[in-house]
Amino acid sequence: MQKNSYFLNIYLAKFWETLGNFFQNFWIVLYEWFGSDDYSTVVWGSFLITTLLYWIAGFCYTVVDLTGKPAFILKYKIQDTSSYPVSFRQVLRVVIHVLINQVVVSIPFYVFCYQLMAWRGFDSGSTLPTLQRTLLELVFCILMEEIGFYYSHRFLHHPLLYKHIHKRHHEWTSPIAITAIYAHPIEHIFSNLLPPFLGPFLLGSHVVTYWLWFSIALLSTLNAHSGFHFPLFPSPEAHDFHHLKFNQNYGVLGILDQLHGTNSLFLQSKKYQRHIFSLSLVPLKVLYPDKSKKL
């Protein structure tokens, strides 16, 4: 037994070492591809990675949104009130607006981020941070995003700002994935871009940690707007409820919503019972049916 445990530990150590060497070598190649220049790496690297990731993942969702196929996926759809599939005209409008945000708004923001990061000091060295450090920094980034997004998002719901800025995002009461950054440019800066930047900036994180965190945040918000609750995926129920009721669930994690009591209606809803990480292939609407709709 001890012998097997010894060989398992050796195998795991070799596996992590090999994996670490792979990412280390890949980072060096990537850094050299950007001319070993911090400005190009931060600005253009961030733009390329986030834009490509958004549209690769978004394309997969959008194919289903436009066609309603493959049909077996539709059983995981949580939005009962939306007309589906969506029209090409609706999708095209979103695509154009999102591209404007990504090019006209995001690129200047990345330039601004670089200036702040250079002033704060950040790690762009050839040696990647350890896995343990990266995980700890990601936890901090998640908490900072929760604070930044909750308060900026709730502030945009003020009557004086809502109709001029945030209303555009809420045109979709049953959103689709790529509406994640379908927003007014001011909202895109202060709610979509700034909150994820807070954590890496405060920590002076390595550029790769910055990219990794932005990628996680991007995939999370695409999923939160998708209208699908797939097995093994984070639950989109809370943010979908926000689009339905407007004055509930302003945050990402739900911590500040619980603290401020801005999730009271959500906690009483059937959607809250379905707001779990599903390990079952059976749709949660089947496991937790809304009996009131059958009456």
From TrEMBL:
TM region(s), chain numbering: 12-30, 42-64, 91-111, 197-219
GO molecular-function term, one example from the UniProt record: oxidoreductase activity
Record's keyword terms, sorted: Membrane, Transmembrane, Transmembrane helix
Record has Transmembrane helix as a keyword: yes
GO CC terms: membrane
Subcellular location: Membrane
Highest rank taxon of the organism: Eukaryota
Domain Fatty acid hydroxylase: 139-262
Predominant cellular place of this UniProt entry's protein: membrane
Pfam families from the UniProt entry: FA_hydroxylase
KW Transmembrane helix (keyword) present: yes
BP GO terms, sorted: lipid biosynthetic process
UniProt xrefs under PANTHER family: STEROL DESATURASE
Name used for this protein in its record: Fatty acid hydroxylase domain-containing protein 2
Organism name: Caerostris darwini
Gene: FAXDC2
